[in-house]
Amino acid sequence: MASVSNEGQRPPGRTALAGMTVMAHDNPEGGKPGLVITELAHLGKINLRGGSDMLPVISNHTGCAKLPDNNRVVSVGDRHIVWLGPDEYLLLCAAGSETHLHSQLTLDMAGIHAAVTNVTDSLCALSLRGKAARRVLAKGCSLDLHASQFGAGDCAQTMLAHAAVTLIAHDASGFTLVCRTSFAPYVTEWLMDAALEFGASFRG
Amino acid sequence: MLLITCPYCGPRDESEFSCGGEAHIARPLAESSLTDAEFADYLFLRDNPKGLFLERWRHAAGCRRWFNMARDTVTHEIVEIYPMGSGPASKAGKAAHAASWRRDTAAEAASKPAHKSRAKKDKVS
Fold first, then answer.
1. Looking at domain B3-124, does it have CATH number 1.50.10.10?
2. pTM of the prediction?
3. B19-33 burial, b for 16+ CB within 10 Å, e for fewer?
């Protein structure tokens, strides 16, 4: 997943989960917690609306050779292009780099029927890791989350416990979850509760 | 719960979708040629058939795109899913479209840039 360092000029402000304390539930069976939640603080998020003529510009700034297919993510280094709809993508980039990237994309999209919107602070990204991640998510999500159906590089916009989320699968046990900033504390608390039986930790 | 195949995202649970009601209600272009009662057919009256129904649906929690669906209101069978702006392709869907009372309304006739409604209006004036 994208680095969470504040490499840019952006001052480290308050994040969606800044008010939440570190939480931990021991794994009843001993060993590591089944779910580890980490906020990807200030992860850069840029919403892209437009057709395939955006590809040369996006490619220039991310290095991707093609736009992702339906329900897929294209990753190049720390930049991820997430498919959201037939003409909509979410670009994830390193924290602090989104302001510059947004202005570059906006400039280069001139003349193309497209919209580039910086939604970094509108959305909150969480990293979910652990053996039980899939089982915890499956408790509140109607998607088929079996690894054979939702594997590495797959993404989906769906509902998790009534909250609208974007799920991105990285491997068998690692996900990035993107939700509205205002839903982030609720989603985190729900995940912690749902993961009680597996053990869970939230590091903020 | 229905398993609805979004044309873009694939099969998803019904809870991710919102139903937009009856499909294929065309806005009358020559609305001034209609009486209030005829315009009400377009504006207020909605079909509620027992059997195959052509509906608009939106993948609200996913790609947020609209599409049309031919669904049986008795068995919940989804006969067909087809894009906005097009008509049903299946035999049953075509039959349901043709059988709707809406096809015979003045509002629907006035929705087409046909010469009929204009000619009628000219005759009146």
1. no
2. 0.87
3. ebebbbbeebebeeb
